[in-house]
Each structure stands twice: as structure tokens, then as C-alpha cells.
Amino acid sequence: MIAGVSLEVQEGKIISIVGANGVGKSTLLKTICGLIRPYQGEILFNDNRIDGLPPHEIVKMGVSLIPEGRQLFNHLTVLENLAVGSSIKQAKALRKQSLEEVFALFPQLQEHLEQLAGTLSGGEQQMVAMARALMARPKLLIMDEPSWGLAPLLVNAMFEQIQAIRKAGTSILIVEQNVFKTLQVSDYAYVIERGRIVLAGNGKELLENTELKQAYMGI
Fold first, then answer.
1. Beta strand ranges found along the chain (DSSP E)
2. For the segment 65-108, what is each residue's pLDDT rounded down to a tens digit?
3. Is 126 a member of any domain?
4. Quick one: angle between helices 122-134 and 152-167, nearest 10?
5. How far apart are CA 129 and CA 65, in angstroms?
6. Angle CA(36)–CA(184)–CA(156) in degrees, nearest 5?
7. Can you give the pTM of this predicted structure?
8. What are the percentages of helix, strand and coil residues in the chain, rounded to 5?
9. Which domain holds residue 150?
10. What DSSP line would sit under 6-21, residue for residue?
11. Residue 94 resides in a domain
């Protein structure tokens, strides 16, 4: 459960949410995306209220979620998964351009376009999940535990890709278990405990916070 949470994602920035398991991080992301309806409060996107809207309407407005555990359509091919990501009207019209852009970011995917998503490795599945969300051409990309199940080398590559996505102009809100790597790339971060924000600040500054390092980085 979350209560009294107030945060802002500025355009073109990487904003992260840090906290232990079970404190409400994923609940917050799902609420923003319309998967959970809040009891009270407001969620604004580009000055428009989106709380109470169904998820597909929120996607149309420019918000895409990469869910925890990827949640691909395993019985569909990689190309079909990407097509699903561009199913809204404005994205469908730019599908060819979007494919070129995601292939530039994830060139490995071109080798697996006709392969069933469920037969890919964990790293490849994460690429598909990220690419599928980008196919909707979001203004805000929300990522829930993107490094889940990935080997360390793949985690490093993924954070490079996150920075490339931001450089291309997409704002990013990320919940991630790898606190150290996340704060390194974050412009701003919020720390949540028991459903409330207890600390906030510049990502690199929070890396120097003694209590945070002891609680979440084992330092």
C-alpha cells in the first residue's frame, strides 16, 4: 500500500524509485499506468489527469510500461510482440520507423524476428520487452525491475541502453533492485519505505548517503 506519495518526472530525465521489497514500488508504477485505481489523489501527465483512465488510454497519451518479469507473449514471434507494442493508431502509422530505431538500439533482435519469444534467453527477452514498449513511441517509459534475472554483463549493457533511450528524448521512471547502478544513471531518486517517500535527492548525491548505502547496497 502507498500513501502520501508525491513525485515528479521531469522531461528528458531518468528518475528512480528505491526501496526494499514489498514497500509499494511496483504498486506505485501500476497505479500510474492505470492497472490499479487509486482511492484518492491525482496523477498528472503533461498537465492532464490520468488517474482513473484505463491502461490503453494512458498508453495513447504517451506512457509505456515494461513490467516486472517482462510478460512477453511467449507464443508469438519477436516481430509479432513488437507489432503488439505499436498497436495504437499513432504508433502503427510509424511502425517501420520505430522498428528501425529499436533495431539500432538492440541489433541482436534482427536475428530472432521469427523466433518465438518464449524460446529466447533472459537477456534477449528483456530486449524484446524494452523494444515492445518503445514501439508505442512513449514520452515516458516506466521500467519495473528491468535487470531481473540478468547476468552482470547484461545488466551493464542494459543500463547503457537506458541512457541511450534518455538521450533520444524519452523520459524514464525506473524501479530497480540494483540500487548502485540505478543511482549512477539517475538525475533524481526517491526512497520509499512502508509506502511513503522518506528520502529524495540527486542520484549521485544519494550514492554518498551512509544510511542508504548500508540499507540497500550492503556497504
1. 14-18, 44-45, 48-49, 63-66, 140-144, 171-175, 188-193, 196-201
2. 999 988 999 999 999 999 999 999 989 999 999 999 999 999 99
3. no
4. 10
5. 9
6. 85
7. 0.91
8. 45, 15, 40
9. 14-71+137-216
10. -----TT-EEEEE--T
11. no
